[in-house]
Amino acid sequence: MKRQTRARAAYAAATVLAVDAAAHLYWTTGAIWPAPDVRTLSLAVLNMEVPFTPRVLLPLAAALLTASAALITTTRLGALGAGVGGVASVGDRSVAAKGDDANGHKRERTQQGRERRRRRPWWRRRYRSRRW
After folding, report:
1. Percentage of residues in the chain with pLDDT exceeding 90?
2. Quick one: 112 and 56 in the same domain?
3. What's the pLDDT tens digit per position in 75-117?
4. Would 86 disulfide with which of 44, 62, 80, 81, CB 3.0-4.6 Å?
5. Does the residue 132 lie in any domain?
6. From the CB of residue 87, how many other CB atoms can be counted at a distance below 10 Å?
7. Residue 97, SS3?
8. Residues of the domain holding 109
């Protein structure tokens, strides 16, 4: 799955969690929409009788908002490359710059050149000379 698709899916899931938390906070105020009474609301939402009191609803809303914030935070950190994967890729680049692979073996010159070309932006690859 592409990074952009994963980010969109994470933002969609975070939005759903935040909307659910907003519904729980709304029910904490004592409002019972979309049902006419608390018992009907409880049966419609949970299929069993549960009290819709702040003592029950506030921890649920807090958990939902925390999960939503965690999804957004990890998505943004992943997009910026500051997660564990970002640190690992920086480590791989520093090893590749030395000319060694992950096991400490020397790489062939042609393989080093190919990797260097792959890291270059397209405008530098296209108009620069072949000197490395």
Report:
1. 39
2. no
3. 888 754 444 444 444 444 444 455 555 555 555 555 555 566 5
4. 81
5. no
6. 11
7. helix
8. 87-127
